[in-house]
Amino acid sequence: MRFAKGHGTENDFVILPDPDGGLGLTEADVRLLCDRRAGIGGDGILRVVRTRALGEALAPSARTAERTEWFMDYRNADGGVAEMCGNGVRVFARYLLHAGLVGADRFEVGTRDGAKEVTVEADGDITVDMGRVERLGSSSAKLADRTVDGVRISVGNPHLACEISVPVAGVDLRTLPVLDPEAFPAGANVEVYNEVGPGVLEMRVYERGAGETRSCGTGIVAAAAAATPPGEGATWRVRVPGGECTVFLDADGARLRGPAAIVAEGETSLV
């Protein structure tokens, strides 16, 4: 099986080209591929499949993806299926360009949250139109060393974005956050952030199904949305342990801009 390895602000993925949808990828396969000692290593899997090969497997929430040629079948490192991944879309788009599967500077990628427009910027960054961002009220999370309050945000997947008054580097994110099961029946990503300058946020994240990661694209958008007064637009630079992305928020939704790179290609016998 051919594979590639890529990352967006050090949120890293194993990329599996499966254009005709013939790969029976199990949860055990995903966990092994993402294992950093016994496998290739990554925060998740990006399966590159033609949308038409999925047929009736598309969920109703992904129906706008039917118009796209390529679908990003994203799996978390624990084998679970995820609705959306902002860094993943950028890396997926970089792979399509790298492999010669697309040739334009603007195209759409299919996801379980529908079609996402991608733009390749002149400096090589990739911008993804993330669509509407929803504020769903407040909730809290119990972390290893504290309880934090935050805003429930949907970026196609669930988030709790928590502004804190201490540096984010000092927060213990080594253990699974405890969430309100009524607010988050399927779990959620939890972000801690603070504003460190005009238009600049620092953020760390515990990703559902992966643990703490160096970056999370939807989490970056969620933190920016939580830091923006409802009904207002804003531009935020968001710093994460793996680098920096920019979020543009307006009445039409959110756009996420940042780097994406393919760092390796090879063959694996793990699947």
TrEMBL record:
Molecular function in Gene Ontology: diaminopimelate epimerase activity
Cellular compartment(s): Cytoplasm
Annotated catalysed reactions: (2S,6S)-2,6-diaminopimelate = meso-2,6-diaminopimelate
One biological process term in Gene Ontology: lysine biosynthetic process via diaminopimelate
Entry's EC annotation: 5.1.1.7
Active site residues according to the UniProt entry: C85, C216
Site (Could be important to modulate the pK values of the two catalytic cysteine residues): H159, E207
Keywords for this protein: Amino-acid biosynthesis, Cytoplasm, Isomerase, Lysine biosynthesis
Entry coiled-coil feature ranges: none
GO cellular component, one term: cytosol
Lineage top rank: taxon: Bacteria
Pfam families from the UniProt entry: DAP_epimerase (PF01678)
Family designation: Belongs to the diaminopimelate epimerase family.
Protein purpose: Catalyzes the stereoinversion of LL-2,6-diaminopimelate (L,L-DAP) to meso-diaminopimelate (meso-DAP), a precursor of L-lysine and an essential component of the bacterial peptidoglycan.
Quaternary structure note: Homodimer.
Protein name as annotated: Diaminopimelate epimerase
Organism name: Nocardiopsis flavescens
Lineage, opening ranks: Bacteria, Bacillati, Actinomycetota, Actinomycetes, Streptosporangiales
Gene: dapF
